[in-house]
Design a protein that fits this description.
The protein is an alpha/beta fold. The chain contains 12 helices and 12 strands. The protein has a 5-stranded mixed sheet with strand order 4-3-5-12-6, sandwiched between helices. Strands 9-8-10-7-11 form a 5-stranded mixed sheet.
């Protein structure tokens, strides 16, 4: 039989729905019910796919049928193709995107930027159903490639093949404490004085460094640990700990006088990235989602620029 992939694709094309149903359920009776055929007919279709490809796609047990690695790769390819076809059909049949639109994001990005952008767009286009999920950048990239989500917003750039990723802005971060903390009304506060107090610290991220961006060479005392940086707002308002917060998160409480921004912290800005499949980068709805999130990031509250930059070497020597 010809080894030409295009020829083999043409041969298995009629059986792709059968393969996908079995691959996604890993249970012949369930898949057969979905397609309204008998389990034996479905089993024959799957066997024809395997024979045509010359490759086993499943591990067969006494009660279940499970995808092997080759089967997983084929299923992911089918999902990507179906997603692209769905998007193309939307363009053919209507002027606007309709149906489920799947978005991955993280804490602060979700609450302050992505969710407002999607609410605004959905109001204008009620036929769109935003479906949001929380994923790490690694998991988001995997689901983008497999066609499970359409766009992702996160903090780590990727060069993964098939994904278009670009920086769309950044978040500034500052040190804060709440009313009741010894530093809230103190005068002449500097960084050496700040690090004498207990911090609420974000967990270690995928890159092996604290998620709040605190430099590993500057020691601090940990009195509380959280998983998501936005949670530090509640902790800071308790008046018990010094916290690193994105300035957009602290803005309202700072304006109300319930938080104090402490002297400039040695914490860098947090870069924000948008990612989608390369073939979808020019799709009008995806482009508009990214543009609105980017515009919101550009208008977000930021820390004031420091009056004078201090040498990191001098800073460490004082600590």
């Amino acid at each position: 039989m010809s080894a030409d992939p295009a020829k083999k694709l043409q041969l298995i094309w009629p059986w792709i729905p059968a393969f996908r149903a079995v691959a996604e359920t890993e249970h012949l009776p369930t898949a057969a019910g979905r397609l309204h055929v008998s389990p034996s007919a479905l089993s024959r279709s799957v066997k024809l796919v395997e024979e045509t490809l010359g490759e086993e796609l499943f591990v067969r047990g006494s009660r279940r049928i499970t995808l092997n690695r080759a089967g997983q790769r084929l299923l992911e390819a089918i999902r990507r193709s179906v997603t692209s076809l769905e998007h193309a059909m939307h363009g053919v049949l209507s002027h606007d995107f309709t149906g489920d639109y799947r978005v991955a994001s993280l804490g602060v990005l979700t609450d302050y930027f992505v969710l407002p952008a999607l609410l605004s767009l959905q109001k204008e286009r009620p036929a769109v159903v935003p479906c949001m999920t929380t994923l790490s950048s690694k998991d988001a990239n995997r689901q983008l490639v497999s066609g499970q989500i359409e766009v992702a917003f996160y903090y780590d750039a990727t060069a993964m093949p098939g994904i278009e990723c670009r920086r769309i802005g950044s978040l500034t971060n500052s040190l804060y404490c709440g009313k009741g903390h010894p530093l809230f009304g103190a005068k002449g506060v500097n960084l050496p004085a700040v690090v004498e107090h207990d911090f609420s610290v974000a967990a270690i991220g995928d890159r092996g460094t604290p998620m709040d961006g605190w430099p590993v060479e500057v020691p601090r005392k940990v009195g509380f640990q959280i998983t998501m940086l936005s949670t530090n707002l509640r902790v800071a308002l308790s008046g018990r700990f010094v916290c690193v917060l994105p300035d957009v998160v602290a803005h309202a409480e700072l304006a109300a006088g319930r938080l104090r921004r402490l002297p400039p912290a040695p914490v860098p800005e947090t870069a924000v990235y948008a990612a989608c499949r390369a073939e979808d980068a020019q799709a009008s709805f995806t482009a508009e989602v990214i543009e609105r999130v980017e515009a919101a990031l550009g208008a977000a509250p930021r820390a004031p620029a420091p009056k004078a930059a201090r040498s990191p070497r001098k800073l460490r020597s004082r600590l």
